[in-house]
């Protein structure tokens, strides 16, 4: 398909997954659009801006999940997993946490498309998709897999360091780089989660929750990482010894400032 033909497409489809916080269940399929400021007043909180997450990762609920306003304040994990019409539209490996703050049908700002399951704020949308590849005049629909749970569980709390290349050989895969995720979101496991090598290939959701200095964590961002090595034997030493896991530079940079040697994390397999 030529570029002019691509630009004439009346809509764009994305495959995304969003689930209540730290859930990985499969769910129903829906759609999403995006919307721009102003965001106040809202059906959930009127003009109370204090109810909005400070990182601006929020959304408005479509009628399918509005649930007579019971959806107000619900939190979801959202990630873009592929695009049906625009290559490289998704930002791989990034999962964000969004909060429902409004009703899409009555929001003061109109969504880019009507009748979708969810409408994401501009900030939320741009963190998981390359907005520059998506012409604004087009109807921008996002295809979702939705899991609606009545409650959510939190993960374990631990610590994470960072480590730099070279990453090979590893205790899990030797010199086989094909076993590493192509998005470079991986980690080496400490003795506490090494499990005699059984942790190799395990995947965790990881987010930064605090650090020794303020402003280190990138709030609202959760990433999936794969264990590819053993921390105590990795060819590259971690920035701090004895942490729960050592994240690759790419993984660490997505959830925290690289100036930090150690962060506190929440993680769940």
Automatic annotation (TrEMBL):
The keyword Oxidoreductase does not apply. The keyword Magnesium does not apply. Residues 1-27 form the signal peptide. InterPro entries: Expansin/allergen_DPBB_dom (IPR007112), RlpA-like_sf (IPR036908). Residues 41-129, 169-269 form the Expansin-like EG45 domain. Keywords: Signal. This is Expansin/pollen allergen.
């Amino acid at each position: 398909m030529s570029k002019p033909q691509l630009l004439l497409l009346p809509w764009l489809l994305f495959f995304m997954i969003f689930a209540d916080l730290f859930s990985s269940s499969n769910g129903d399929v829906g759609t999403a659009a995006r919307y721009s400021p102003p965001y106040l007043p809202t059906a959930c909180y009127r003009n109370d801006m204090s109810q909005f997450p400070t990182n601006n990762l929020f959304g408005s609920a479509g009628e399918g999940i509005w649930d007579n306003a019971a959806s107000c304040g619900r939190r979801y994990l959202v990630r873009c997993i592929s695009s049906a019409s625009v290559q490289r539209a998704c930002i791989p490996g990034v999962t964000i946490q969004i909060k429902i703050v409004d009703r899409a049908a009555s929001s003061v700002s109109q969504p880019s498309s009507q009748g979708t399951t969810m409408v994401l704020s501009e900030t939320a949308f741009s963190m998981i998709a390359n907005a520059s590849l998506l012409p604004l005049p087009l109807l921008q629909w996002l295809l979702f897999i939705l899991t609606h749970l009545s409650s959510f569980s939190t993960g374990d709390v631990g610590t994470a360091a960072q480590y730099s290349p070279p990453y090979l050989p590893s205790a899990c895969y030797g010199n086989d780089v094909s076993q590493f995720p192509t998005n470079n979101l991986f980690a080496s496991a400490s003795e506490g989660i090494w499990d005699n090598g059984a942790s190799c290939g395990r995947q965790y959701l990881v987010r930064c929750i605090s650090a020794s200095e303020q402003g280190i964590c990138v709030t609202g961002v959760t990433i999936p990482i794969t264990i590819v090595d053993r921390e105590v034997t990795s060819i590259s030493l971690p920035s701090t010894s004895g942490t729960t896991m050592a994240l690759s530079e790419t993984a660490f940079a997505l959830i925290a400032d690289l100036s930090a040697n150690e962060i506190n994390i929440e993680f769940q397999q």
